[in-house]
Amino acid sequence: MTGPNKLPRSFYDRDPIQVARELLGMRLVHVIDGVTRVGRIVETEAYLGPHDLAAHSARGRTPRTEVMFGPPGHAYVYFIYGMYFCMNVVTQPEGMASAVLLRALEPIQNLDVKSSGPGLLCKAMGIDKSLNGRDLLSKDFFVTESTGVEKFTIMKRPRVGVDYAGSWARRLLRFYIKGNGHVSRR
DNA sequence: TCATTGATGGTCT
DNA sequence: GACCATCAATGAG
Length: 186
Fold this sequence. Notes:
By secondary structure, the protein is mainly beta. It has three helices and eight strands.
């Protein structure tokens, strides 16, 4: 059996909206101490760049947002609300500061997920600040295509927790697989 | 079903 | 000192 293909950097080097939609159904893989954790991505959000007032990069280039301004295909991991980490994949060429937040996974292998959301996603996958800036073409941390043909309908909704962003809060930049039981905030 | 709140600490002003 | 890309528990309706 031939393994699924690791997504190339060119996949990430595109419009974050397209990347967010196409990440649905793909698999996030993280190997820790020889144990492989795998989750199927079922919910994402696109953050378009500094002009998008809901994006962290809208505050400018700071130590925290540095990775967002870097090259595509790297992980942007940040600490939020004193207890959770959230993971994004950086999109578009260096300097564009756009990214896609991974909001929910469907457990495939070695994942203990009671409920879902970006904070618990990182907890289940063993993702913390030490992975901020990591290349997603690493041997132990990457995204692959799914193994078979999976048909599903993509739903579009406003992003979660960005009400401060004015009209940007109303844009339909949250994407998820219709009917999937692991999507957050159902 | 919806609104509110506590836990907990990094980041930026 | 205020805010925050969260989550679970709580209580009212």
